[in-house]
Amino acid sequence: MTSTATARGKTRKSEGASYQMYIDGKFVGAKDGKTFDVYDPSTEGVIAKVPAAGPVDVDRAVKAAHRAFYEGGWKNVSAQERGRILFRIADRIRARRSELAELETVNSGKPIVESEYDMDDAAPCYEYYGGLATRSTAR
Fold first, then answer.
1. Residue 93: exposed, middle, or buried by beta-carbon count in 10 A (0-12, 13-18, 19+)?
2. Do residues 97 and 119 lie in contact, with contact meaning Cβ atoms separated by under 8 Å?
3. What is the pTM of this model?
4. Which end of the chain offers a freer environment for a tag, N or C, measured as fewer CB atoms within 10 Å?
5. What's the number of domains the chain is made of?
6. Residue 2 and residue 69 share a domain
7. For the segment 1-52, what is each residue's pLDDT rounded down to a tens digit?
8. Strand, coil or helix: 138
């Protein structure tokens, strides 16, 4: 199924792609196999099919995150390196600003100008918290 949307006067044609969840280092579907369609609100066309995560999937994701933090290496990552990771995320948002803004517009139906503002606002947020990484104290 295809849909089109307009962002900055450009017509974008999207194939209804299928996506999976990222849990425990793997891309997986919902345990029960259920999915749902994601619609472009400007055209009502399907832009994606995604897993319909249920309680079992949420539990699986929470357990994986807990293991990654407590048994994996994340708890051993220094505050400095955590800050650097957040700065790299900000850099990647800026590098893909136009693509991310267009995707947000197609997904949410908001004007492209607002989506561009969201991208311009998101990168500094990551930098702000990246800068705080070495200034916070655990209690």
1. buried
2. yes
3. 0.72
4. C
5. 2
6. yes
7. 333 444 544 444 445 689 999 999 999 999 999 999 999 888 888 989 999 9
8. coil
- Give me the pLDDT at residue 11, please: 43
Give the Cα separation of 61 and 67 in Å (integer). 10
Q: Which residues contact 113 (CB under 8 A, 6 or more apart)?
A: none
Domain co-membership, 4 together with 36: yes
**Element (DSSP H or E) covering residue 46:** strand 45-51
Domain residue limits at 114: 77-139
Encoded tokens for 91: 């850099």
pLDDT in tens, 38-91: 998 888 889 899 999 999 999 999 999 999 888 877 788 899 999 999 999 999
DSSP state of 77: S
* Last-in-domain residue among 46, 76, 106: 76
CA-based torsion, 89, 92, 96, 99: positive or negative: negative
Whether residue 70 is found in the same domain as residue 101: no
| Packed helices 112-132 and 79-95: angle between N→C axes, nearest 10 degrees | 160
The total of other beta-carbon atoms located within 10 Å of residue 51's CB is 21
